[in-house]
Amino acid sequence: MAWALLVAAGILEIGWAIGLKYSEGFTRLWPSIWTIAAIVLSLYLLSIAARTLPIGTAYAVWVGIGAAGAMVLGMALLGEPRTVARIACIGLIVAGVVGLKLFDPA
């Protein structure tokens, strides 16, 4: 259950990271509300997952999901560069997250 909550927290982190762009510095109401709600819910789910999982693992996976997801959505939605180097680096982040799951002692 902790891993499912952690993945959900990571997905919400992607949402709030992208929401920061759409909120335009918290000057647009609805994107700002979504962003703040996603931040709070993401941190709450991370805190629940961290009750069971080691904090280093939980935090690294949460950040990894958020970073890789935000980069992918940035490329897909915001026209950010799609270079081989960026895509390879996303692959390294994903490999790290998968590795942390595979070697989780719990």
Distance between the amino and carboxyl termini:
12 Å
Question: What general form does the structure show?
Answer: flat
Radius of gyration: 14 Å
**What's the rounded overall pLDDT mean?**
96
Structural class: mainly alpha
The total domain count is 1
Main sheet record = none
Percentage of β-strand residues: under 5%
Poorly predicted runs:
none
Q: Which range best describes the helical content: under 10%, 10-25%, 25-40%, 40-55%, 55-70% or over 70%?
A: over 70%
Number of strands: 0
H/I helix tally: 4
Helix/strand order: HHHH
Outline:
The chain is mostly helical and 106 residues long. It has 4 helices and no strands.
Structure explained in plain terms:
The chain is flat. The chain has helices spanning 2-23, 29-52, 55-77, 84-102. The protein is mostly helical. It has one domain (2-102). Helices cover 83% and strands 0% of the residues.
Keywords:
single chain, 106 residues, mainly alpha, 4 helices, 0% strand
What's the SSE blueprint?
Layout: H1 2-23, H2 29-52, H3 55-77, H4 84-102
